[in-house]
Specification:
With 227 residues, the chain is of the alpha/beta class. 27% of the residues lie in helices and 22% in strands. It has a single domain, classed as Vaccinia Virus protein VP39 (Rossmann fold), CATH 3.40.50.150. The strands form 2 sheets. The protein has a 7-stranded mixed sheet, with helices on both faces. Strands 6-7 form a two-stranded antiparallel ribbon. Strand 4, helix 5 and strand 5 form a beta-alpha-beta unit. The chain is globular.
């Protein structure tokens, strides 16, 4: 199983903080906490826990539990990890008050967003990114959003490989920075944006699922740090 989170250049720093930070007194909200956004089967959060982070500091969020249930069957750990999964939709109009999101709302110090943001068109990416900042992030200096997704040497809207008549915006380094300048402006936040592209090496990404625009497709990695 390919675990992209471990290849992120910021992962060792985040891992060390999650493993060594101490909770002051009885303040269980102090964190730090990491969220696997769009967690699917939860393989990323399990990798972080396997690397020594206390289970209580790692959460997974998805809009439904279909693949989470598959993860329980695959890893046989429902009794140890079930409480760390959250089912909810941060794009819902009620996300700011939805009880289902209370475990993760404005509590996350680190958010792994792997293969999530690129599923939307440009305006959808703006909306999702703003919700990540406003609904999930703790909002403290040094908070990090990091991940990877499919980019393209010629950025723009491209045919969605799963939804007929929909598009997915593919970024290069310039348009990704512009996106986060816009998100920062509209949320009143400022971000240090690190972004890079490289040839796609993942066997999964070389498969037919990413055939649309494959000739110019690249892996786009990013680290955004709240200033």
């Amino acid at each position: 199983m390919h675990l992209a989170v471990t290849a992120s250049p910021v992962y060792p720093i985040i891992l060390a903080h999650l493993k060594t930070a101490t909770i002051s007194g009885d303040d269980q909200d102090a964190g730090p906490f990491l969220l696997d956004l769009g967690c699917c089967m939860g393989q990323t959060m399990r990798a972080v826990i396997h690397d020594g982070v206390p289970t209580s500091r790692v959460y997974g969020l998805d809009v439904n539990d279909e693949f989470i249930e598959v993860g329980y069957d695959l890893f046989q750990d429902r009794d140890r990890i079930a409480s760390q999964f959250v089912i909810g939709d941060i794009l819902s109009p009620s996300a700011s008050t939805d009880f289902a999101l209370s475990k993760v709302r404005n509590r996350m110090d680190y958010i792994w967003a792997g293969s999530v943001i690129h599923l939307f068109d440009y305006e959808g990416q703006v909306r999702l990114s703003k919700r990540i900042v406003e609904i999930l992030l703790r909002g403290k200096k040094g908070n990090v959003i990091f991940g990877r997704q499919v980019g393209h040497i010629n950025p723009g809207e491209m045919a969605h490989n799963a939804v007929v008549s929909a598009t997915m915006y593919r970024h290069d380094e310039r348009t990704w920075r512009e996106l986060w300048d816009k998100v920062g402006h509209e949320t009143g936040t400022k971000w240090k944006v690190e972004v890079w592209m490289k040839p796609i090496e993942s066997k999964d990404w070389k498969s037919a699922s990413w055939a649309i625009g494959a000739e110019g497709a690249r892996e786009l990695g990013f680290v955004m740090t709240l200033e």
